[in-house]
Amino acid sequence: MRSRFIGSRQIESAEIVDEQKVYLRVTLSDEYYPNEVLARLEIRWYRNDDFTMHYQENRKDEAWKCRWDRHPNAHNTRDHFHPPPMASQSDADDAQWPADHRDMCRLVLDFLEERIETVW
Question: 7 is in which domain, residue-wise?
Fold first, then answer.
């Protein structure tokens, strides 16, 4: 998965981070964002194909975030989306995600490309 992200022009870096839980931290290229915005994607993918893909833009005084999830929970179906700008649990929407992690990565990268084109 790391090598798939590194191959995209949208990506500055992708590194495995081991802080309490192991995840992939993907830093988006600053060529796509104004100087005051730092954007990243954090991914945890489990052997049972559960996952969380958390996108966040940080500005000086605020954050804009969303999250794609697949895991059992009490608030939604196993596949669900936490929409921006806060990605709160109470606003999650049921969804249906691709089974293959490569297709899921493409879905997220396409979402980010659309976000960049819309905002900037």
Answer: 2-119
Euclidean distance between CA atoms 40 and 28, whole angstroms = 6
The number of distinct structural domains making up the chain is 1
Residues with Cβ within 8 Å of 106's Cβ and at least 6 positions away in sequence, in order, are none
Q: What is the pLDDT of residues 104-116, one digit of tens each?
A: 999 999 999 999 8
pTM confidence score: 0.91
pLDDT in tens, 57-73: 998 889 999 999 999 99
Structure tokens at 55: 């996108």
| Distance spanning both ends of the chain, measured CA to CA | 27
Identify any residues that bridge with 13 across adjacent strands, giving them in sequence order.
27
